[in-house]
Write a structure and sequence with these properties.
alpha+beta; Beta-Lactamase; 4 domains; five-stranded antiparallel beta sheet; 14 helices; rod-shaped
Amino acid sequence: MDRPTTARMPFTRQLLLLQVSVILGLGILSLLAVTLLLRSTLSAQYEQRALGVARAVAADRDLGDLVREEDQPAVGRIAAAQQKATGALFVVVTDRSGVRFAHPNPDEIGKPVSTDPGEALAGHEVTSIERGTLGLSARGKVPLRDSGGSIVGEVSVGFAASEVNDSLRALLLIAVPAGFGAVALGAALSGGLARRLKRLTFGLEPDEVANLVREREAVLHGIGEGVLAVDADHRVTMVNAEARRLLGDVREGVPLDDLVLPDRLRAVFDTDEERVIAVSGRRVLVGTHRAVRLDGADLGGVLTIRDRTDLESLTDELAAVRSMTTALRAQRHEFANRLHTLAGLLHNDAVVDAVDYLDAVLDGASSGHLTSPTTVHSNTIRSFMAAKSAQAAERGIVLDLADGSWLPHRLVAPVEVVTVLGNLVDNALDAAAASTHRPARVEVLLLADGDDLVMSVADTGDGIDPDRVESVFVEGVSSHGPHRGLGLAISRRTARDLGGDIEVTAHGQNGSETVLVARLPHVLDAEASAPEDEDEDDG
């Protein structure tokens, strides 16, 4: 039985309710604080108002003389007139004993005041909110002096506390609607924010967004391809670990122009080309670019990168195996012919002729530039050239190692040397095969310069246009069809990694040969020769 699931309130609604609750709570607290502040301010204002009226009444020196002379009716008339003019709750005048000479209630005249008159009779002004015979009021008390300046009593003026409450109520009638309006506005803005958040997250809940982020990280960093994303301003917004491994130090937030990228990978963001092949260091990279658009707006692009170096290495190995197979096939035909010839001589009892034929075959097998240990001491180079010669012969091309070749040292970087030499030879064989010039010929010259190796490869192809010499070293540029143009680019990059370079020294125009020269520094062991050569010298 499935467990019952309880409906959960959407996060945006929770957020809206929380924000409204916070705004409402803040509004209520603010209203309470404003109420207390207004009450305190109004009370102080009414106290100061009472004090001001009391000061004005006490400023009449004649009133002080009348109190000193105990002329109560005259004092009462003056106090009643001031009370009426100011709208005060009461204007009370006393003598030095605190006995009332004037009071709104005639029954209270002649009686002591209900609150302590001591401070006023001592010459101090006093403000307070106190309860007396007329109820709670805001009061101001000042000493009353006669014409001689002597204190003869006090003047106490009060305003009813209900006036303070009425004023406070009037202000709150303005403040409360304004506060509720602010709360309503805040709630409306919170609702708009919640709706915008929902649109931005495509209606997903926070836990769903968190799961998407975790899945995104797992996918991006778990796949075998490099992923590089940029925004519309060509600023990196996302890069995974494989992309960093293939491209080097790539960080998010860095402009694309500040990154050290192969030119073809950088240019793919500005073109409609979707798939490119580029060389980065010694790696062959295949990049696939996809532009990102939403409602016609350009949001940038995503480049996925695959490392094809291992595939290229396997392809090179397969090509070497094919070359060796071709060479063996050619040798098999020649060997079979020789065996047939030898068998015929023996069947005819021509033993002497058979021996002479064998001597000639053995002498021919030991001659030739490709196997001569006195000129090229590297078994790697000789084996490579032998296989390429057989492959060239199958294509109707003569591949020779020049008579002037001189390589008395062994190789200390055979992989790099064969990479450069192999690509140069393959390029020359393709050029010679595609040309109408016959006989098609490729000649390789190898020279040792200290521990540097200088190699020259000449072919009878159609040549290179002088205006596009540098373009032949750009990956992807080839006249032999699509998905080609990597060999020379890899060769030059390998040569430059060693500190050398490859140059076109002859363009091959007007029937002349095309010549490419490569210098590979420090690839030879100048201190030692190959072991078999040392044995021969000793002999």
